[in-house]
Amino acid sequence: MTDRTDIVVSRPAQPVEPTVFDHEVEPVSLATVLRRRWLAMILVSLIVGAASCSAVWFLILPKYKVRATAQVARVVRPILFTDLDTDISRRYREYIATEAQVIVSPAVINATLNAPEVRFLPSVVRFEKPASDIRSSLKVEQVKNTQLLEISMTGMHADDMTVIVNTLLKTYLRLSEDRKREWDEKILSSLRREETDLTAKVLVKSRELRDRAAQYGVQAVGESGTTVDGSAAELHQLLTEAIKNRAFAMAKLEALDSDDMSAGEIPDDPMGFEEYLQADPELLGLKEQIRQRELAVFDDNRLGRGPAHPNVAGRAVQITSLREAVSHREAALLELHKTSLRRRLEAERLEAEIATKVHQEQLDKLNQRQSEIARQLFLLEDMRHERERLEQSLAQIRQKIWTVTIEQNREARVTIDSLASAPDEPNVDKRLKYSAAAGLMSLVIGAGFALVRDRLDNRIREPGEITARLGMPLLGSLERFPRANGIGLASGERILEPMRGISTALLASPRAGSARSRLITSPTAGGGKSSLAMNLAKTLAATGRQVLLVDGDNIGQAVTRAFDMAKQPGFKELLEGSCPPEQAVHPCEVNDLRILPAGQRSERFGELLSGRRAQEAIRSLFATYDEVIVDSPPVLASSNAVVLATLVDEVVLVVRAAKNTEKEVEAARQCLATVGDKLVGVILNAVSPKKARYGYGYTYS
Q: CA dihedral in degrees (692, 694, 700, 701; nearest 10)?
């Protein structure tokens, strides 16, 4: 089958290095994906949108909403909230929230379902689980900044819902009153039992207080305290005086025992030492004898008796002896007087010590008595406080009993403000909103489908993807145009101009001076490589070079069929050695262009191509021409392409846009890399005119 292309649009390419194996894939933006896949996105969005909108309008039916309101008084029962410090507004919010929960409680809903007017309603009969279904469609909330509770129910049967809501509200009020009455009775019963217990405790505590006061003997607490305090003061005074007396006695004894004390310094002498001496008769007799002797001496002096007189000499000795006797007597009397005085002082000290000890013991006993009285008073005071607490608790219980008794006759706190009525038309229709959401969802699904499809589809479509995604040099791109007459080779100015860019890029490569043979191949069949090889050979021949076009595709033979040389000997016969090169190469209508057709088809073509002698013959043949263009089979379809790549200087890979994938191109490059660094670039064929930004177009078949 002839490998052909529909378009040829070329652009000149800058000379680049032929092999770039390491690359990074640039991310593709969402706008680029949507621009590329807009048709798929629109189709998927329309299909999904139509299906979802149809489902919305058929499955989601308009609903009615019926409302009833109840008024909740702001007066909060004191029996429920005993903490007076709690904020009243917060109490009210808690209370109204509790009432809202009670309205939709299972007890109220079950009582409503058991009502005769609700039990046989068609909508209730159809419910599999009436209680849960009604609970899910009911909504109770407080109207903002009001005392109203709104009970609403949403569904498709307005009349049935009206009956259910009104019955529910009435049932709630009835059960609420019953609950309030039952609660009040329980509270009263509990409070009365507590009142009885507290009354008995108060009586018992009063009796204990009276008995304990009598036991301690402190009924007159003030008088007992005053007596104890007076006795303590007297004992303190006596104790102080006793301590002082003992100190004085000790001081006198110490002074009496001192050695330097003279006769006139005896402490605390009640009668005086002189008086004591005058009371001693012996001492008085001695003093009288001295006085008489002194009178006799005076008479002797008056009579003129000299010292020699016998009476005068004896009197002096007598006076001296008497005076010594008086001194000895006074010393003896002083010691006797001190001894007597010491005994008296010792007695006084002992008496003071005994008094101090007695007073201290009495004071200690009095202090113990005072501590005992204080402890007894503390116990009695604690009992009095406990009795007062019991009396206060009893007063509070009686106040609560009075409050509950008063509130039993008070009007209900929750009253009906307005009953529900069936609306004339649906007031809950969400089909438009869901339809808009479905349309938006369909656009998102369409965009997601386009993105997923683009991610899964890794075909090469634009020239920029060759470098961005594959990291390979781009030699040019060919635009797609409608096919004309099915001929693979075109002529005239229309082919020379677009192919000139590709030939210029090949001849301007860094190793173009040493490269004389080039292999034109593609990853898979149908890439347009044969048409490109023929037109490239024609373009090079137009420059005056001797060009050989070789048909290396023994199976496809597109070049051979294009030049009508199917019956001529060619490449296969040259490899076998059955035909010399001058017979295998044939001229054509293009000057300076020679054709080496594929020859006869053979399954041994690959074996022939791998022979050493055949390869030497091919190289010698290629050396006789300025340029050699070899059309090979697809790289991934036949291993002959890799073998042919060993016989040429450069390899050009032709990729068909929107057909060859990134994996195919990468696999082809890896196969060609096994023969060395010969891949010089890629030519993107059959690019969409909207995606080709440069080049000229021509058509051929």
A: -30
Torsion of CA 18, 22, 27, 28, to 10 degrees: 30
Contacts of 524 (CB under 8 A, 6+ apart): 634, 636, 637, 659, 660, 664
Tell me which DSSP letter residue 248 carries: H
Beta-sheet strands, E only, within 353-466: 414-418
CA-to-CA distance for 526 and 662, rounded, in angstroms? 16
Tell me the angle at which helices 281-303 and 310-407 cross, rounded to the nearest 10 degrees: 150
Give the Cα separation of 152 and 161 in Å (integer). Answer: 9
**Cβ neighbours for 450, distance < 8 A, ≥ 6 positions apart:** 33, 34, 36, 37, 38, 40, 41, 44
User: What values do phi and psi take at 139, rounded to 5?
Assistant: -145, 125
> Running DSSP on this structure, what letter comes out for residue 9?
-
**646: buried, middle or exposed (CB in 10 Å: 19+, 13-18, 0-12)?**
middle
Question: What is the CATH T-level fold of the domain 514-681, as seen in this structure?
Answer: Rossmann fold (3.40.50)
The neighbour count for residue 493, using CB atoms within 10 Å, is 8
Query: Token pair 């009397």 is at which residue?
Result: 333
Handedness of CA 286, 291, 297, 303 (dihedral sign): negative
Helix (H) or strand (E) holding 627: strand 627-631
Nearest of 111, 131, 104 to residue 175 by alpha carbon: 111
pLDDT one-digit tens code per residue, 508-560: 766 656 668 999 999 999 888 999 999 999 988 988 899 999 999 999 999 99
Quick one: the chain helix, strand, coil %, rounded to 5?
60, 10, 30
Q: Which amino acid, 152?
A: S
Of the candidates 519, 468, 467, the residue with the CA atom closest to the CA atom of residue 13 = 467
For residue 564, the one-letter residue type is: D
Kindly give, in sequence order, each residue whose CB lies less than 8 Å from that of residue 595, ignoring residues fewer than 6 positions away. Answer: 548, 549, 551, 559, 563, 565, 585, 586, 587, 588
Q: HEC profile for 414-447?
A: EEEEECCCCCCCCCECCHHHHHHHHHHHHHHHHH
- Give the amino acid at 424: D
HEC string for 42-98: HHHHHHHHHHHHHHHHHHCCCEEEEEEEEEECCCCCCCCCCCCCCCHHHHHHHHHHH
Q: What is the pLDDT of residues 149-177, one digit of tens each?
A: 888 888 878 888 888 888 888 888 888 88
Can you give the pLDDT at residue 656? 92
Instruction: Read off the amino acid at residue 500.
Output: R
